[in-house]
Amino acid sequence: MTIPMPKQQDIRKLDRQGVPHAEIARRLHVDRSTVARYARMEDCTPKPPVDRRYGSKIDPYAHLVDGWLESDRLMPRKQRHTARRIHDRLLSETDYDGEYSTTQRYVRRWRRANQAPSDGYCELEWAPGTAQVDFGVARAGIAGEWVEDHCPVVTFPHSNMRYVASMPGENAECLCHGLLLVFGHVGGVPPVLALDNATGAGHRDAKGHVTLAKVFDAFLSRHRIEARFCNPYSGNEKGSVENAVGFLRRNLMVPPLEAESHGQLTRVMLERCDGLARARRHHRSADTSIMERFAADRDALMPLPSTRFDPIRWEIRKADEYGRIDIDSNRYLAGGGWHGRRLLAAAGWDSVRIADPESGETVAEYPRRYGKTAGTLRDPALVMPMLAARPGSWRETPIRPDFPEDVREWLDRADGRRLRDSLRVIAQATLAAGFDNAMLAASDSIGLRPEAGPAETDLVSLALRHRDGEPDGTDAQGPDLLDYDRFINGDGPDDGEEGR
């Protein structure tokens, strides 16, 4: 048994004074053999610790655990056994009744003994102006809704200056737009960007070759930037931005930020990044401040180009039988008239524009969806021509909730002829003045003449008045056409003087 060093010193001191071993053992409450061993000890040089394990409950199953851990070498890194999974398998597949801590210690010893040799890490020196880029994810409130905010983080490792933007996704369009916002804030373009293939910039094949996304490739060419990709599983090669992702999440996003848009949130975060840099003051490995070292980074930046780069991905898509196209597993309605035809789609970071490939005329434009969502993003104005041609589908049309309640109830009560005629004139008004103005005009016509409704009203003129800011139906340059309708149908005033 090993006893504490102070007690060893007391044994040797009392032995040097000639105190009998039996008396030393009595005074220090140790065994006489222990006193004799330390009193006669000649070599007191410290010895390395020795594993004195004499057996464990896991030993009979060690060969089984070793086999599982060996087979993990051929599996992807994220699909290998954890100590918890090994413990659960031992309990369910064998008679093992040991504690989880026992299993955990065995797995730790095995991995330590069988880990691959490493050459360690080299300390890297980053030139002024060089930037590192990566994405981080945090919760944020956008327009009153809590979302997963995907944040491109840009750091300048020479000064340890850190910036972050707010984006709805992690594709090449979002990456380019986020970088443009940071470049505009700092007033220049870094000559070198260090990235990995997880930033949306491209993808790496089995041979390690990186293929850039077309949008990002054009972005680099426009700004004359050199892109460097770190080796797989080598986050240390861009350790500045790896640390910055966690630092900014903890210091900027706790508590979670809220804003009306990603653009507004980005402006708030960029200002706070400047404030954090001024508050930290000294650089971690230099006597100068972060802002002083960042001045050297600014001097090394290239000037911003005179024209702004627009990160758009152009694709050709064929509309299905309903006139819908698919962009990144989400459906957007181009209109029934385009079914079976090829369309040109421009996918930006926040919008999708659908255009006629021959004339270039815009067919429809929608906010871009991220993630796979159910249903089709549609513009009611694009559905109205199909609905007018097929009035029998009124009760099942997907744009039924877009109609005002009074218009919807009137159409529900209308007979077949009035329903057909009303949908036809609503479609004409929608084409002339837009869906919202057509709905306002339809509500006006129902309020003024509920027995006739939209079918017997000049709905196009009413909708155009709403579009031009005359919602009361009056026109300073001409008569109110509803007065003519009332006069022809005998609904006008019967005052003789006014009649004359």
Task: Describe what you observe in this structure.
It is built from 18 helices and 15 strands. A hairpin with a 2-residue loop joins β10 and β11 (330-333). The longest helix is centred in the middle third of the chain and has 19 residues, at 262-280. α1 (5-16) runs antiparallel to α2 and α5 packs across α6. With 500 residues, it is an alpha/beta fold. Mean pLDDT is 84; it is low at 473-478 and 492-500.
Structure described in brief:
This protein is an alpha/beta fold and 500 residues long. The protein contains 18 helices and 15 strands. The strands form four sheets. Strands 1, 2, 3, 4, 7 and 8 form a six-stranded mixed sheet that branches. The chain has a four-stranded antiparallel sheet with strand order 9-12-13-14, with no helix packed on it.
What's the pLDDT, averaged over the residues?
Answer: 84
β-strand amount: 15-25%
Major sheet characteristics: 6 strands, mixed
Which spans of ≥5 residues are poorly predicted at pLDDT below 50?
A: 473-478, 492-500
Assembly category: single chain
Helix content: 40-55%
Spatial gap, N to C terminus: 126 Å
Q: What's the count of strands?
A: 15
Shape, per Cα inertia axes: elongated
